[in-house]
Design brief:
alpha/beta
């Protein structure tokens, strides 16, 4: 039966390509005379309200409203994307009444998760939404593929916006003057960056880019994974077959994927060769099994058919009729040497080809790491891969370079003055945390007393033993739980593979010993006997039942699970041993069927290895991780976080066994869990700063890519001062933080400096002369209940506080200086702050230590520790205390405290550095604190009004404007 209402709405929405318009007028114009009732919105509302699961009309409006909600920089709404205000603008333009709005809001809630953050130079607009829609053959195909895979409307629209933001900042492929943009896209570890660059590739070839070179990892295994993904989801069957009859076995000789169980069903079909459907074909210059070797048909492989041979290729009439070429190339010097050699043979046509180079894991091998001090006569010396990438960019003057990584700092610190290098001079885009992604927030309780650590993390301490047997038991039990869920209606696709990662060392000999030990332990584990079943039953009751997802089936008793334990053991033991060693110096070491998650039906194994099990290598089905490897490189450590990723149907089963007291050197031990948390905090802070400063001021960016390096937390141990001085020439001189916390951390380590600082606080400390008051936090997303804490309070004029701040000593004064420049202008020069409410939280614990400091009333002493190897404390303000300060500033909680629109809030803490409460008692014998043992630490929150009308948040200056040959950054104005 024909669904007339659905067809009409499809026609109406198709006519709204440029944005929402008056619905009823268009419906009247496009309606079928035989179905006049369809134009009345009352029928539409009734359909939406009564719609069941899978209703096509509801799905159509879900896609459309979500796309409009998420669209950036539209000319039909001044409201920000992802807000209720944007949705209201949409309804107003459509002319919908209150009842229909209510029905649609219930059916399609506004998606409010943050989108991509863009830091960009100003650019010439050429890739509008109309331009993109006019040529969208491969993007439309890719979008449909994602929807078939189960992507939500919000996920597809988010990817559409993020990939559009990349392509619009590339150079127009039809422009006469050649220009090569340089950009960087920052994702999360194992968060789906490949989907973004596949979307970028689809949009780029649709727009006219005719040569795409993907640098896909340093191993054939990784390169092949990327090739297969592009072939399956973008390039498609018809371009792979190139006219070969899929039913003719002789014609299929040499055509890859004939042994792939997903071929052809899961490979996208365009319904015919694209060139016969009004579009253009894509020719592959590499295949799944074959990296770039040479242009197999010689130079002709890059000869483009031109409609008008008298005109260059980039002229639209030529460009949009030519086939695109795509190659996925390993980042390997001999391979890139062959490619460059072949390109040099081609000649002048290279200057006409709009090309796109996508560099996956762009901070690996691509960055130049030679020591500038060793360069002769100032001539740049490059590492092999970096030199070859710059050669490619030079050979292809119309080439755009886009790097992709989850650890961006190496790319950000490339010298921006080196015009030939890969510094992202044009744009940096930080992708949002995808829905369903298990990241740092799921393993670390960053902002509150949560349950992430209790649920997923199992620490390995000196007094726990190595817990390897516990991890092995968890692996068997979670495998059984997956099988149980599959048997009880949970889609089994995500359970196809089930893996455990063991990462203890970088040394190959130790891998062999460890694998032997695990194999031996496996055979002694008695999983078919009473002892083994007893351990698993206890583990189910004590751990996995406690933290099970209530929306997923979990057995009530071990007896219900026991049959699945037997099957899990069989799958893990298939082939005779449960362990695979993943290491080696040659490609042959990785050519194991069990490592090919695409071609092997079920990989249920324990993977033991080191570096090769980190960057770029996706371990499918990873459920249990055993991690004890130490490193002093933050980006290296972050890339080891293979436990981050998507875990549909089993995220509650994920367990991380991690060393909490691992030796580093001869005398030192480190807590790897805390190390990961510290790194993740630094990265999240970096992303938060990018997001905050991405807002345009007067239509222009506050921050350009060349100004990003100073925003990187500079107290990271791996950030070398010499490299930092070489790699950027922008100095951050002011950070404005109206309504946002300022929390210095690099307090002096010298006792005498600490004493001097404490004495500078004397007058303020003496102002706490009244008893404690109660500060209350209202119910919020952390708790449905109000929470309160006692605190001493006083008010201090702005001038007095600045007198203290200006005299304080710091271990790294340059970190606080940009904040002080801002605060010092709040006397009316920039904005007016009259006074500050000082809050000294008092601990409520019965064993709290209170002490007088330089004659002050008794204050609660708090214990904090510094980050390992750094001068900075990990955290100063408590979560509830900071929340209370923000409520006071935002005026979102009732209070009797003296806080007005020109009042700031300062949280004050007498901090004792130490590892136990005994250190606090030692610092304050008899209730009198030793001034040299107490750091007066603080968190400041200026009022929201503390800025001028420009709303600028940052100000930069060139380090030395006389150095004309350097890459300098223009000074930002107040």
């Amino acid at each position: 039966m024909t669904d007339h209402l659905f067809n009409l709405h499809g026609d109406v929405l198709a006519a709204m390509r440029r944005g929402p318009k008056a619905f009823s007028k268009l419906a009247f114009a496009l309606s079928d005379a035989d179905e006049p009732a369809d134009i009345h919105v009352g029928h539409f509302r009734d359909r939406i309200v009564g719609a069941g699961h899978g209703d096509e009309l509801t799905a159509l409006w879900h896609r459309t409203l979500t796309a409009w909600d998420l669209a950036e920089q539209v000319d039909w709404s001044s409201s920000p994307a992802r807000t209720d205000a944007r949705r209201t603008d949409i309804y107003n333009r459509l002319g919908f009444g209150a009842d229909l709005r209510k029905a649609l809001d219930e059916a399609v809630p506004v998606f409010k998760e943050p989108g991509a953050t863009v830091i960009s130079r100003e650019f010439t607009s050429w890739y509008s939404r109309d331009t993109a829609a006019a040529r969208a053959f491969y993007w439309n195909s890719y979008e449909q593929t994602l929807r078939r895979k189960g992507w939500s409307d919000a996920a597809v629209s988010s990817l559409d916006e993020a990939s559009h933001a990349v392509v619009e900042r590339l150079s127009d492929p039809t422009r006469t003057e050649a220009y090569g943009a340089r950009g960087l896209v920052v994702g999360y570890v194992q968060s789906g960056k490949t989907a973004n660059f596949t979307g970028v590739t689809a949009k780029a070839v649709d727009a006219g880019y005719r040569l795409v070179i993907v640098l896909g990892g340093t191993l054939n295994l990784l390169r092949g994974q990327t090739q297969r993904r592009l072939d399956m989801e973008l390039i498609g069957r018809e371009n792979i077959l190139r006219g070969a009859d899929p039913a003719d076995t002789d014609a299929l000789v040499g055509v890859d994927y004939q042994d792939d169980e997903d071929w052809p069903a899961k490979f996208v079909s365009h319904g015919g060769r694209p060139s016969t459907l009004g579009s253009f074909d894509i020719e592959r210059l590499t295949t799944r099994d074959n990296d770039y070797k040479s242009l197999e048909t010689g130079i002709r492989a890059l000869e483009f058919d031109k409609q008008d041979r008298t005109q260059p290729l980039y002229v639209p009439d030529n460009l949009h009729h030519a086939a695109a070429r795509v190659m996925v190339v390993k980042k390997n010097s001999p391979v890139l040497t062959k490619l460059i050699k072949d390109l040099k043979k081609i000649g002048p046509i290279l200057s006409e080809i709009p090309a796109l180079i996508i560099d996956d894991e762009s901070d690996q091998a691509s960055v130049n790491t030679t020591d500038p001090k060793k360069w002769e006569d100032g001539k740049v010396v490059r590492k092999a891969i970096n030199g070859q990438i710059t050669q490619l960019l030079a050979l292809l003057p119309r080439a755009q370079y886009v790097g992709y990584t989850a650890t961006p700092f190496a790319n950000v610190f490339v010298d921006p003055g080196d015009e030939e290098d890969i510094f992202p001079r044009d744009f940096l885009i930080s992708l949002p945390r995808p829905t369903g992604y298990m990241g740092v927030q799921d393993f670390h309780d960053l902002e509150s007393e949560g349950t992430a650590e209790e649920t997923h993390v199992r620490g390995i301490h000196d007094d726990t033993g190595d817990r390897l047997q516990d991890a092995l038991d968890a692996f068997v039990l979670t495998g059984a739980l997956k099988l149980y869920r599959a048997a009880h209606g949970v889609p089994e696709g995500p359970f196809r593979h089930h893996t455990m990662l063991v990462h203890e060392s970088v040394r190959q000999r130790e891998h062999a010993v460890l694998a032997l030990r695990i194999n031996s332990m496996w055979h002694r584990s008695a999983y078919t006997g009473q002892e083994g079943h007893a351990r698993l039953a206890a583990l189910l009751a004590d751990d996995f039942q406690r933290f099970a997802d209530e929306d997923l089936p979990t057995p009530m008793s071990y007896d219900d699970l026991k049959p699945f334990v037997s099957r899990a053991r069989q799958l893990i033991n298939s082939g005779g041993e449960p362990v695979i060693i993943v290491n080696g110096d040659t490609e042959r070491d990785y050519e194991q069927p069990e490592l090919d998650f695409d071609r092997t039906p079920h990989v249920w194994k324990i993977l033991v290895g080191g570096t090769k099990l980190s960057r770029g290598f996706t371990i499918e089905g990873l459920t249990v991780t055993y991690y004890r490897r130490t490193t002093q490189q933050s980006d290296t450590l972050m890339q080891m976080g293979r436990w981050f990723g998507f875990r549909p149907g089993y995220r509650d089963l994920v367990r991380l066994f991690i060393g909490r007291q691992e030796p580093l050197g001869k005398k030192k031990t480190v807590d790897l869990y805390e190390a990961f948390e510290a790194i993740c905090r630094d990265e999240e802070m970096f992303r938060a700063q990018l997001s905050r400063y991405a807002t345009l001021v007067d239509g222009k960016p506050q921050v350009t890519p060349a100004q990003i390096p100073p925003l990187v937390s500079q107290h990271l141990s791996w950030l070398k001062p010499a490299a930092r001085n070489k790699m950027f020439n922008a100095e951050l001189v002011e950070i404005r933080s109206p309504g946002h916390p300022i929390e210095p951390a690099a307090y002096p380590t010298d006792a005498l400096a600490t004493r001097r600082n404490t004495e500078r606080w004397r007058l303020l400390l003496d102002s706490f002369r009244t008893g404690p008051v109660t500060v209350t936090n209202p119910p919020d997303k952390r708790s449905p209940l109000s929470r309160s804490f006692p605190a001493l309070t006083c008010s201090v004029p702005h001038s007095e506080l600045m007198s203290i701040m200006g005299r304080l000593e710091w271990e790294r004064p340059e970190l606080f200086r940009p904040h002080l420049v801002y605060l010092s202008q709040l006397d009316g020069k920039l904005a007016k702050v009259d006074d500050w409410l000082v809050i000294a939280p008092q601990l409520s614990r019965s064993d709290r230590v209170e002490a007088s400091i330089l004659g002050s009333p008794p204050l609660s002493l708090v214990r904090r520790s510094r980050q390992a190897g750094k001068a900075a404390f990990s955290r100063i303000a408590g979560v509830e205390h900071r929340s209370a300060a923000l409520h006071l500033i935002n005026r979102t909680a009732a209070t009797s405290l003296p806080v007005g629109p020109t009042t700031g809030v300062i949280l004050l803490y007498p901090v004792v550095e130490g590892k136990s409460d005994a250190d606090i008692h030692a610092a304050a014998p008899d209730g009198i604190a030793e001034p040299s043992a107490v750091t007066i630490a603080f968190t400041l929150v200026p009022p929201k009004s503390a800025n001028n009308s420009s709303n600028r948040l940052l100000r930069f200056q060139a380090k030395d404007s006389q150095r004309a040959t350097d890459s300098v950054v223009p000074t930002g104005s107040p």
